[in-house]
Amino acid sequence: MFENLQDRLGSILNGLTGRGALSEADVSAALREVRRALLEADVALDVVRSFTDRVREKAVGAGILKSIKPGQMVVKIVHDELIEMLGGEGVGIDLNAPAPVVVMMVGLQGSGKTTTSAKIAHRLTSRDRKKVLMASLDTRRPAAQEQLRQLGVQAGIDTLPIIAGQSPTDIAARAVQAAKLGGHDVVILDTAGRTHIDEPLMVEMADIKKRSNPHEILLVADSLTGQDAVNLARNFDDRVGITGLVLTRMDGDGRGGAALSMRAVTGKPIKLIGVGEKMGELEEFHPRRIADRILGMGDIVSLVEKAAENIDAEKAAAMAAKMAKGKFDLNDLADQLGQMQKMGGMGGIMGMMPGMAGMKDKMAAAGLNDKLFGRQLAIISSMTKAERANPDLLKHSRKKRIASGSGTDASDINKLLKMHRQMADMMKMMGGKGKGGMMKQLMGGLAGKMGLGGGGMGGMPDLSNMDPKQLEALQKQAEAAGLGRPGGMPGLGGGGLPGLGGAKLPGLGGGFPGLPGLPKKK
Length: 522
Known about the structure:
Blueprint: H1 3-17, H2 24-40, H3 45-59, H4 62-65, H5 70-86, E1 101-106, H6 113-126, E2 132-136, H7 144-155, E3 158-159, H8 168-182, E4 186-190, H9 199-212, E5 216-222, H10 227-239, E6 244-248, H11 257-266, E7 270-274, E8 282-284, H12 287-294, H13 300-310, H14 313-324, H15 330-342, H16 345-352, H17 359-365, H18 370-381, H19 385-389, H20 396-406, H21 410-431, H22 438-443, H23 468-483
Parallel strand pairs: 1-4, 1-5, 2-3, 2-4, 5-6, 6-7
Antiparallel strand pairs: 7-8
């Protein structure tokens, strides 16, 4: 979503940090480029003007221009103002009300209200252990109510029985009553949309609000619609009174202007963002983390949280013990590749690592992308159990059979086997080092409750016992240590990702790469 803006701002601000001294003219020229970059990203004009004025006011003071590192101070000011524009602190869905808490979903047709309603219900059920009831109030769109019912069946979430002929306001009242009788903690009302805002829609929303008395009114907006989404938010807020925003399709290739504008224009917090089609692909919106990603500073905290959700701690501990003995077969390699895919693939992981966002294009040009991992997994899946455990069995006839079964050729299989041999040799070497082996130090933290930590990951502090505030502090430490700039990270990857800092570390599934430069936890 923010890749183009990230590239533009990165090149502009890198030009400032590379200078020993700055004049007021230098800052003004850079801010003109920042203004142009934000406008091209479809950020609202008044928001851009306010943003650049605030940055200029703070950046041209004598204390900044005469400081030891004026370029870095300007980058910090831009970073802080970007966080402020996005909302300062993240705000989640407020459930602090007598049960059942009513959450009303509003928005235009096609913005993703129904799917988002199911995603929120799934999130509240699986993460917050809430009992949720969903109800569709969309009596106009064909099969809208059936769609929500099917989503409820897939996710194991209760939905209000469909009664033909009822009005939206009657369905809302029945849903609230059914939630009270059923002992539900939350009831989610999925309202109808239109292709555009009209008076009957606003009247209907106002009637539903009056009848159901919602604690939260969330506007679901498609982030790819740009400034139209901002106008939509303003109109809904004026007529219905929204309490927060949910932006869908944040994984798309839009310019990101809606996300940057909506909080500033409406004053309402962006609470959640949809980052994919799957039920679990809904994330909380953290302004600081988004600002870090836009400025190429990475997002260690989100990466840690993603690892905690996707890495099986017991499986990781067993793999660490196996690797410490120098054993590493193709089943282990497949596990690592699979876990990298779960965490968003190579592109997603690289975007969250400090100073590494700019490497994604270079990696793609070198053929190191998620399609490569898919081919490698297909090759391994086409092998027999004995072949995966003992790759030495793979002679010409077996390779021919595997290539036919996986839709690849012998050269792809040979590349995979070469990568595996390099990794296996490295594991043997690291496992043979003294004091329990280097491998134990590198991977011991994966046994922690976060799936990370242990204090030994290349000098990275133990993340397993940190609360969110400590993790946020760690992100700041990473920036202070220089990891917010290109070149601050070691190599990544399944042992076969050359050129990334010169190092060859195991993949993220079995061993999270160390972050040299981060101070150890005292």
